[in-house]
Amino acid sequence: MYRSLAIGYWLTLVLAIPAAGFLIRIFIIFHDCGHGSFFRSKKANQRVGIFTGILTLTPYEEWAHNHAVHHATAGNLDRRGTGDVMTLTVQEYLGLPWWKKVGYRLMRNPLLMFTLGAVTVFVIGHRFPKKNSGKRERRSIL
């Protein structure tokens, strides 16, 4: 991609489309390895997951652990907080001050969530281990 700039910016923009598609497909493989469903072997899933995690700049062990917790707790309002978007009940929302209501609505706006939110999670959030992270998760972040 960098070398295509010498030919023209237009070529780089055209090449960015298939490059983004390949990166999404790599993340899908990464995701399936995290579920242990890409290969029969757990070790093969882990090795390919680590490799594809490097390509997608996502620490495999940390992400796989948080994603498993997300699947175990998704939709359970009593177990919120890991790998999910903050969700409030109507009563909780109504109990917020006006400025927190505005922040909550902005955070859940798809335009912001899938642009600024994604950048925040993948560029900043995955670079620091959580307080309850295990040794393997911390090592994958490093």
Brief descriptors of the model:
single chain, about 140 residues, mainly alpha, 7 helices, about 0% strand
Characterise this structure.
The structure is a single chain. The protein is built from seven helices and no strands. It is mainly α. It has one domain. Helix 1 (9-34) crosses helix 3. The longest helix is centred in the N-terminal third of the chain and has 26 residues, at 9-34. The protein is globular, with a radius of gyration of 18 Å. The mean pLDDT is 90.
Question: In a nutshell, what does this entry contain?
Answer:
The chain has helices spanning 9-34, 42-55, 60-73, 90-94, 98-107, 110-124, 135-141. It is mainly alpha-helical.
Main beta-sheet strand count, sense and barrel state: none
Structural class: mainly alpha
Specify the number of helices: 7
Helix-strand topology string: HHHHHHH
Got a strand count? 0
Shape: globular
What is the overall pLDDT average?
90
What number of domains?
1
Poorly predicted segments: none
First-to-last CA distance: 27 Å
Evaluate the radius of gyration: 18 Å
- Helical proportion, percent range: 55-70%
